[in-house]
Specification:
Radius of gyration of chain B: 28 Å
CATH architecture of chain A: 3-Layer(aba) Sandwich
Helix content of chain B: 40-55%
Number of helices of chain B: 36
Shape of chain A: globular
CATH architecture of the largest domain in chain B: 3-Layer(aba) Sandwich
Strand order of the largest sheet of chain B: 1-10-7-4-2-3
Number of helices of chain A: 5
Strand content of chain B: 5-15%
Number of domains of chain B: 3
Structural class of chain B: alpha/beta
Number of strands of chain B: 17
CATH topology of chain A: Rossmann fold
Helix content of chain A: 25-40%
Number of strands of chain A: 12
Structural class of chain A: alpha/beta
CATH class of the largest domain in chain B: Alpha Beta
Strand order of the largest sheet of chain A: 1-12-7-4-2-3
Number of domains of chain A: 1
CATH topology of the largest domain in chain B: Rossmann fold
Largest sheet of chain A: 6 strands, parallel
CATH superfamily of chain A: NagB/RpiA/CoA transferase-like
Distance between the termini of chain B: 49 Å
Oligomer: heterodimer
Largest sheet of chain B: 6 strands, parallel
Shape of chain B: elongated
Chain lengths: 168, 736
């Protein structure tokens, strides 16, 4: 991914109301401690050399942690540059509920995992869905206008943050 | 007569909704409509995406039986079950069995119009299973014990204040709720507890992907995600028409649906679930245990036929199946913006597309109460992300109902007056408006007596009572000298024929018999720009009968018009049309009324008058020959806007030297005959009030108001504007 695409992804995230922070893999654990409002619950990020055990983020998720946590930390399988979208895998670790239940979701996305647009993202998703996997394309915070005006934070998170890991 | 009392009851019902729900519906739908325009303007080639989405849907419905078989295999291979339900009872019985097998006493649901169609909630409650809606709009409607009023925003008819009062009364919270944030937090917590405890989660599906057995859910709140992933058992209920071949077909829909529905770039959540999903189960009764084994999940996909496979065989209703339930047809509809889905909708579905859905699912008679609210203005055609010709579906169903209804006892009284080709079942009011051309000719032949008569109170009372023509409406004033008389008795302007174009002007009945000045202005304008002009005979285009669902009469008229214009086309003349609704007929509906070659030739060579003038100016004609200098407030005609023709009028007015501001309401409310009808007069005037309000704003107030459509002209007069010329009258040189 080019630097330009990462910047475009950041501006799309910004348009979707998602604040982004760039970090290098080696600094990820420290960055999470700075960014995460505890109590936090998480699932393994799948990035070499990074363990949530070194952070304030509690693992594994339990029902109580899902309900109590202010923040949920999950990997983001890919980002869609055009819309500032997270592709979240419904994995057995619990990325789906951890990204859904707490009021704040911190998604960790590798800068090398960006797709330009939905068409590119679906090219890859077509294979993984056929393989039985599931994914959520999440863009910004949950919202409703059903109560007479726009309110963020309904059944899903009120605040979404992106941590972009620059892995060379 | 029953017609009169039916009309009075309908008027009363509409009046009541205008008073109770109208304001909230108007605020919400016009907001959604505005943000849809903004979102569509902001990014990409929307029309290319719409064409792509349309083609995918056409292909999928064509291949539907094969896709059903495919998804049976793939879902089974994934470890789920597919049940194809013939009808609502069949679907509900299956869902009850699933709940029974899961020992369920409570179900949480995300928003699903298909489950509304089935009446799942009542069926489950009867079976002793509690059902909780989790979409906050559906939750409001469930608490209020009302029906959804909109495909996407079920509670769009309620203001925040009303929801606040409802919640405070029903739930009596310790601290009374006040703001939208209060209401949202309260509803989320209330619903959230039910999600944690539920045994079964039920969702709809916006799309079902046959190749992988996946479902796609488009949501903003996140409730569908929770319903699908929290209880161990997931039931997804979808119409069979939701099937698409594969994930590769989704991108255009992912781009379009949220823009069309709510002006969002994309929806917050697009869930692509291949159930049973790999996410761990969640048992809130064991709060400190790690999450559970995904293998404990079960999944049922209920595909609902309930009339859809018959719709697939119906050449006219088929495209209803392409609908992705975005609600844009309602939001873009002037009538819907004022009354909402409780008037403009059937038992389940709302807005313009409701006629297709309700006719297909419950039968054509299920549309009788609301079908007439589609005036054919066509604004939804541009709004629909899959290019469904929604007005045509409404016209077809109206036509079928005309044929199915009992012949009216009074029909023979007017059979001489209304020599149409439609069956005796057409009611008197429809027949009257469907034969406007004949009436206009008689009105002109007998003017000024006809005009005097039409202003007599006893006459108007009788027309109101027997014919359903509202007595509060002024009727058109007919001219004794028709446009044809005038044209035959004059010499062309000296400049006529100096340019390299020859045109035949098509005079609609309004232009020929009533608003003759706009016809004269059109002739003079064309001639001063050098065009050689002939006048076609005044035959009706078929617009009037078509709007009443009298398709055969419209077809006969279309054939007569095309025969009458053929010699001029053979001579290389361009067809120039003053009335936008008629040029829309030539280009649009004639495709369905005439053979392809005839339609294509006429469509390709027909021009709206100001479009044609624009073309002349672009090709070297001198704009100085036109008259300018006024400050104009211009209202484009709805069908003209759908054809992207209104811009030419604005451009010509400006090039002639006028200063122009334009309205952006979807329709003036008159919509041909609609506003004349006793049962719809008040709605028509309520819709018109939006236009009046725009033209009373500081940037428009005091300007000369102009409109392209004859019925827009009548409506603007009724809204207390003066004169209201056609724009061509503002640029035409003087003289005879």
């Amino acid at each position: 991914m080019t630097v330009r695409e990462v910047s475009r992804f950041e501006s799309s995230l910004d348009a979707a109301g998602v604040a982004a922070t760039r970090v290098e893999a080696a600094d990820l654990a420290d960055a999470l401690d700075r960014l995460v409002e505890p109590p936090a619950v998480g699932v393994p990020l799948g990035i070499d050399g990074v363990s949530l055990d070194e952070t304030v983020v509690e693992t594994p998720p339990t029902p109580r942690r899902l309900k109590r946590a202010e923040t949920g930390v999950t990997p983001v399988a890919a980002g869609v540059v055009e819309h500032g979208t997270f592709v979240l895998r419904s994995d057995a670790n619990g990325s789906e509920p951890v990204s859904l239940y707490p009021p704040t979701h911190v998604g960790v996305v590798r800068a090398s995992d960006l797709h330009a647009d939905f068409t590119a993202a679906f090219d890859e998703l077509e294979g993984s869905l056929a393989g039985g996997e599931s994914a959520i394309l999440a863009t910004g915070a949950s919202a409703t206008a059903d109560m007479g005006e726009l309110v963020h934070g309904v059944h899903g998170p009120r605040t979404v943050r992106a941590v972009l890991v620059e892995d060379r | 007569m029953s017609g009169e009392s039916t009309r009075a009851a309908k008027a009363a019902r509409i009046r009541a909704l205008l008073e109770t729900e109208g304001d909230a519906v108007h605020e919400n739908t016009t907001h959604l409509n505005r943000v849809r325009y903004e979102a569509n303007a902001a990014g990409g080639d929307i029309d290319a995406l719409r064409a792509e989405a349309r083609a995918i849907k056409e292909d999928a419905i064509e291949r539907l039986p094969e896709l059903v078989e495919r998804v049976r295999e793939t879902v089974a291979a994934n470890g789920g079950e597919v049940y194809v339900a013939d009808d609502a009872a069949d679907a509900n019985a299956y869902i009850e069995r699933v709940c029974d097998d899961a020992d369920a006493d409570s179900v949480v649901k995300s928003k699903s119009m298909t489950t509304e169609e089935l009446g799942v909630n009542d069926a489950l409650l009867d079976a002793g299973v509690d059902v909780h809606e989790t979409d906050l709009g559906e939750f409001v409607v469930q608490v209020a014990d009302e029906a959804p009023s909109h495909l996407v925003g079920p509670a769009i008819h309620k203001s925040r204040e009303e929801i606040t009062a409802l919640f405070n009364e029903v739930f009596d919270p310790d601290v009374p709720l006040e703001t939208a944030a209060d209401l949202t937090r309260f509803a989320r917590d209330h619903v959230g507890e039910r999600i944690e405890r539920a045994d079964v989660g039920m969702t709809g599906a916006n799309f079902v992907l046959a190749d992988s057995g996946s479902i796609a859910l488009v949501t903003n709140e996140g409730n569908a995600r929770k319903c699908a992933v929290t209880p161990d058992t997931h039931v997804a209920v979808a119409g069979v028409e939701k099937l698409l071949p594969s994930a590769a077909d989704l991108p255009p829909f992912a781009e379009l649906i949220a823009k069309a529905a709510g002006g969002q770039d994309v929806a917050t959540y697009l869930s692509l679930l291949t159930p049973p999903v790999d996410s761990p189960t969640i048992d809130f009764d064991a709060p400190d245990e790690p999450l559970g084994d995904p293998a404990d999940r079960s999944f049922h996909l209920v595909l609902v036929d309930n009339g859809r496979l018959d719709m697939r065989e119906d050449d006219q209703l088929r495209e209803t199946l392409y609908c992705i339930r975005c609600g844009a047809c309602g939001n873009s509809c002037a009538n819907f913006q004022h009354v909402g889905g409780h008037a403009f909708g059937g038992e389940t579905y709302t807005g313009g597309i409701a006629t297709g859905w309700e006719a297909g699912i419950r039968g054509e008679d299920a549309t009788d109460d609301f079908n007439d609210l589609c005036t054919g203005c066509s604004r939804c055609v541009d709004a629909c992300p899959v290019e469904i010709d929604i007005p045509w579906i409404n016209t077809v169903v109206r036509d079928r109902r005309n044929r199915g209804a009992d012949p009216d006892a009074f029909d023979h009284l007017v059979s001489g007056l209304t020599p149409d080709d439609d069956p005796a079942g057409v009611d008197l009011q429809k027949r009257l408006f469907g034969n406007f051309g004949t009436l206009a000719r008689l009105g002109s032949e007998t003017a000024p007596l006809s005009n005097w008569l039409s202003r007599r109170a006893p006459v108007r009372a009788a027309m109101d009572r027997w014919l359903g023509v509202d007595r509060r409406r002024d009727l058109p004033t007919f001219e004794r000298e028709t446009l044809a008389d005038w044209f035959a008795a004059r010499d062309p302007l000296p400049s006529a024929g100096t340019a390299d174009r020859a045109a035949v002007l098509y005079p609609d009945a309004y232009t020929n018999y009533a608003l003759t000045e706009r016809g004269k202005a059109a002739v003079r304008t064309l001639e001063v720009l050098g065009v050689d002009v002939t006048l076609a005979p005044c035959h009706e285009s078929g617009r009037a009968p078509l709007s009443q669902g009298m398709i055969e009469t419209a077809r006969t008229q279309a054939e007569r018009v095309s025969d009458a214009l053929a010699p001029a086309l053979d001579d290389g003349r361009d067809v120039v049309v003053v009335e936008p609704s008629d040029v829309a007929m030539f280009r649009g509906e004639y495709e369905k009324l005439l053979d392809d070659a005839t339609h294509e030739r006429l469509a390709a060579n027909s021009y709206e008058i100001m479009e044609y003038v624009y073309g002349l100016l672009e090709n070297g004609a001198d704009a100085d020959a036109l008259v300018g200098g006024d400050d104009v407030a211009y209202h484009g005609h709805c069908q003209q806007r759908t054809l992207d023709l209104a811009g030419y009028t604005e451009a010509v007015l400006r090039r002639a030297g006028h200063d122009v501001v334009t309205s952006d309401v979807e329709c003036c409310g008159m919509a041909g005959s609609f506003g004349y009808k006793s049962e719809y007069y008040e709605l028509s005037m309520d819709v018109g009030a939006d236009l009046r309000e725009q033209f009373e704003r500081p940037d428009a107030a005091g300007r000369r108001v102009a409109a392209s459509g004859a019925s827009c002209h009548e409506q603007l007069l009724a809204l207390a504007f003066d004169g209201v010329p056609h724009p061509v009258e503002l640029v035409a040189p003087g003289g005879r």
